[in-house]
User: What shape does this take?
Amino acid sequence: MKAIENLLQTVAQLRKPDTGCPWDIEQTHQSLADCLIEETCELLQTIDNNDLPHMCEELGDVLLQVVMHAQMAAENGAFHFDDVAAAINSKLIRRHPHVFGDKSGLDKEEVLQQWDAIKAAEKPSSAQADKGLHSIPPALPALLYARSVYKKLQKNNQAESAGVDPSRVNEALTEAEAGAELFALVARCRHNGIDPESALRRHARALIDAIEPATTES
Assistant: This one.
């Protein structure tokens, strides 16, 4: 715990008016948003490469982003780092009664169903909204965005609405084959002047708008 305390003190000093770092002092939640994405992507690269020594370093960079945001929030009287840690710790215990409570012996699928049920009970006012396609963060990379859209469609028994041939979905596929097919499609897009990222994102967004039109106020 001493290490995290030292980190919190270091970041607080970096943000201290007059005596801190000019760059760190002028940062905001919004200005650091891209940094969080970049640091996360660098961490993902170490995970893909199974590069554990560099993973440790990149985890530190991601942790710094969390601490920076918590420090800025503390300066504005919103919350502190301890609040962030306490909140996620309580959530983990609350949503794992099969580990910390008396509901033992559940399989993986039952655990996921239990998680969703507990989450819905915690946030009854937003539970229905959380189920909607528009609740998927649009800032996700296009592939993750499309995967999340299809996953939610499956969960809501709407997969057929995606217009995907069920026989193709059920075909056996290996990771190597998937990578090759995706790469070939990217190459085809480039040859035809199409940005594959934008194309996939727009298609997924169009599906959402068709299946679940956004409500507008008159």
Summary: The first helix runs from residue 2 to 14.
